[in-house]
Each structure stands twice: as structure tokens, then as C-alpha cells.
């Protein structure tokens, strides 16, 4: 028969773990709530990249990023990112279940694993987590995605995403990218320039918006066609009915 003296430390340990878990849940939600109104001064992925540069002795590496509010960014930029990355963004609740099912079906058939992350998921990962593949990271990504979707309006999610997304080696956000690639401000970006920025998102350290390869130009042209077919900037406001991407 177990001694009652052994049960007491176990109960205390479980209680302490429960308190720690609740404290972490409350703190993480509080951070998400604050960031609904306060621009993040950096992101976990930016810090990871900077640390990697220090570790590997990249002496010429310079991280460029500065916050640009929604009202000072051309409406073509968020539309291009939605058209290229997540066309159901205005209408889903953080997860594109159809894309997830398609990715699972592709994996079952032995085809190349396709990405199924929404802009909400990418925002959660870029802001709070790290690059890499693991069940732990995907679980935390799902958790922060739910928090973000419950706490932020869609416009805020897009605003944060386009300010922290990696758009080149050491270049994060539309503010730094528009200056580095097009020598202009985000407010002056046209549909073609916005489409080229969105075209490099799958691999921003290999692809270049200012020196587009044939692949980047083809992808930018496709994104630009999608931008018009979706209905223009009104689509990201949810004022145009969703349709299947082509």
C-alpha cells in the first residue's frame, strides 16, 4: 500500500505544474493581446537569423526591418501576399482545412509534401517561434494561431505579417524590402512590384525581387493575375466572395 507521505510531494508537484501551465497560458495570451495594439520591435525568426549570423561569423550580415503602419502601405501589397500565399485568408479561421487535406493526400500518395500554412500560421511562427520542422513547433504554432485569430482582426494579422515576413537575406518586412529593391516607400508600390515581393516568399534568400529570375517573373505574373481575378484590394476586406484559386 503506497505511503501517504509519498503522495503529498506528487500532488504538490502536479499542482505546481498546473499553476505554471496556467501562468504560461495567461502570459502568452497577454502578449498576443498587447501586440494587437503595439508594433512588435522584432520577431523570433529575426532573432534566430541574427544569432545564426553571429555564430557562423557572417561579418557582412545586416538585419534590416522597420515597422510601417497599414495606412502607409499600398493596398496592392497585402493583396499580393494573400493572392500568392493564402487566397482563403479573409474567410478562414486560421487553418485552411482543404489545403491540409490536400497535403496529407499528397503525402499518402508519395508525392512531394506540400505546404499548407496559412498567413495566420506563418505570422504565429515568425513572431513567436523558430524555423524548422517538429511536432512541438507545429503544436505551438497551432496554439498561437488560435490566439491570434481570436484576438486580432484580419487586417492586424496582415499588417504584422507584411512587416515581419522575410523578403531577402536580412531583409524583413515591406518597409525594408521596398527601399532595398525598388528605392521607394511601401505606399508607392504598384501591383507589379507587390507581386514580385510576394513571389519570393517561398524562398526569400534564394529568390530576388529586384533581380527576378524567369521563375520569379512567372510566379509574379501569376500572382498579379490572381490579384485582379480575386477582385482587387476589396478582397482582403472580405467584400468579395471567395473563389477557388487557379
Structure overview:
This protein is mostly helical. It is built from ten helices and two strands, in the order αααααααββααα. The protein has a two-stranded antiparallel sheet. α5 (119-128) crosses α6. The protein is globular. 35% of the residues are buried.
Mean pLDDT across all residues, rounded?
89
Helicity range of the residues?
55-70%
Rg over CA atoms: 21 Å
Total number of helices: 10
Structural class estimated from helices and strands = mainly alpha
N→C terminal distance: 67 Å
Low-confidence stretches: none
* Beta-strand residue fraction: under 5%
Task: Tell me the strand order in the biggest sheet.
Answer: 1-2
Give me the strand/helix succession: HHHHHHHEEHHH
Q: Tally of extended strands?
A: 2
Oligomer: single chain
| General shape | globular
Q: What about the largest sheet? A: 2 strands, antiparallel
Amino acid at each position: 500500500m503506497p505511503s501517504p507521505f509519498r503522495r503529498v510531494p506528487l500532488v504538490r508537484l502536479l499542482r505546481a505544474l498546473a499553476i505554471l501551465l496556467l501562468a504560461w497560458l495567461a502570459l502568452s495570451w497577454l502578449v498576443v493581446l498587447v501586440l494587437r495594439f503595439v508594433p512588435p520591435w522584432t520577431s523570433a525568426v529575426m532573432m534566430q537569423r541574427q544569432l545564426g549570423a553571429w555564430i557562423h561569423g557572417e561579418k557582412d550580415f545586416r538585419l534590416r526591418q522597420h515597422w510601417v503602419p497599414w495606412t502607409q502601405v499600398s493596398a496592392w501589397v497585402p493583396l499580393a501576399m494573400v493572392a500568392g500565399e493564402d487566397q482563403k485568408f479573409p474567410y478562414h479561421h486560421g487553418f485552411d482545412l482543404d489545403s491540409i487535406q490536400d497535403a496529407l493526400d499528397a503525402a499518402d500518395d508519395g508525392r512531394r509534401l506540400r505546404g499548407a500554412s496559412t498567413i495566420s500560421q506563418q505570422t504565429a511562427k515568425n513572431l513567436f517561434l523558430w524555423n524548422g520542422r517538429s511536432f512541438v513547433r507545429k503544436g505551438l504554432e497551432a496554439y498561437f494561431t488560435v490566439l491570434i485569430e481570436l484576438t486580432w482582426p484580419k487586417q492586424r494579422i496582415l499588417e504584422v505579417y507584411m512587416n515581419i515576413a522575410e523578403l531577402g537575406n536580412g531583409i524583413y518586412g515591406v518597409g525594408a524590402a521596398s527601399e532595398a529593391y525598388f528605392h521607394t516607400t511601401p505606399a508607392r508600390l504598384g501591383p507589379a512590384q507587390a507581386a514580385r515581393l510576394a513571389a519570393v516568399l517561398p524562398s526569400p534568400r534564394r529568390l530576388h525581387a529586384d533581380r527576378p529570375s524567369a521563375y520569379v517573373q512567372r510566379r509574379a505574373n501569376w500572382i498579379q493575375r490572381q490579384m485582379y481575378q480575386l477582385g482587387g484590394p476589396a478582397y482582403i476586406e472580405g467584400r468579395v466572395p471567395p473563389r477557388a484559386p487557379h
